[in-house]
Amino acid sequence: MAIMDASLSIAGLTLSPPLALAPMVGLSHSALRTLTLELGGVGLLFTEMLSVTRLPQENAIVSPFLFRSPEEHPLFYQLFVSPGQDVVPAVERLHQLGAQGIDLNLGCPAPNLRKQGAGCALTNDHEQVRHIVAMLRCATRLPLSAKIRLGTSLNEENLVDFCQMLEGEGVDLLSVHGRLHGEKFCRRPHWDWIGKVKSALKIPVLANGGIFSVEDARKCLALSGADGLMIGRGAACRPWLFAEIARDIYGVAYAPSHMNLPDIYFRFVQLLERFRPERRLGRLKQFTHYYGQNFTFGHHLASAVQTSSSVEQACDRARKFFYRSEELQV
Fold this sequence. Notes:
This protein is α/β, with parallel strands linked by helices. It has helices at 30-39, 88-97, 111-115, 126-139, 156-168, 191-200, 214-224, 233-237, 241-248, 261-271, 280-291, 298-306, 311-324; strands at residues 8-10, 13-15, 19-21, 45-51, 75-80, 101-106, 144-148, 173-177, 205-208, 228-231.
């Protein structure tokens, strides 16, 4: 594949390179966002999903969902909305927080969101989605994006109609996870169906789902024709993946960090210190679940950290694991 365009413009905002860290519950917080920035290659960041009803009262100083450091830029805040909820107070709060963009969650299949009529459940009512997007567009001049899945079944007409409606109501960027609402992560994503969306829209499209290597990224871009990529679990497994894709696909080289696998792990632990103590251990456990996949016996690392009762104990157990492991280089 030839070197691709290393920048993408969205409503006056330039993403360089066009690689985004996906919004993920418990993972897309300040520590992981900062780690990927330090390792290089990520061009757009997202928060974890935020409730439009709770957001206006959240304390940005102590909230793990809202805390950000100055280097985390550009940062889009993702909202989840249930039918009948007013989005305006949440948007006003995001203006106060200095958001670079706002993202609407239309793809999360989590049961608790479905019960509220939010996430992918919201897409069952296209007119309701149209109304919410119109409210968001009227309430802000910030770039507006949305994240979707492919629907309840592979129906090209319904998918294209829905995406064209989003574009028509003022969405500036669409991220498409290449799986159906009910499909698990073990199911290979339908990257070619993202291409059906891309070919029908004028706005930029990011392809998401199943990207864990440079080769995955190449295949996804080739099949989807997308303008860029959004990477989720792959970034938690290999936070340096953005830098590899930026170098090999977009021709953008970053200075080597000279960090090995233990160094990166403990840098993440260090970045967790920006959170209140009671907020750190759970996030370390969740990160370790993915990061352990870099090791043949990584499940031993994940288990040792999962059963730890403090960050200090988890770090001590991680050090012992790394000492015994021969797989230390990125």
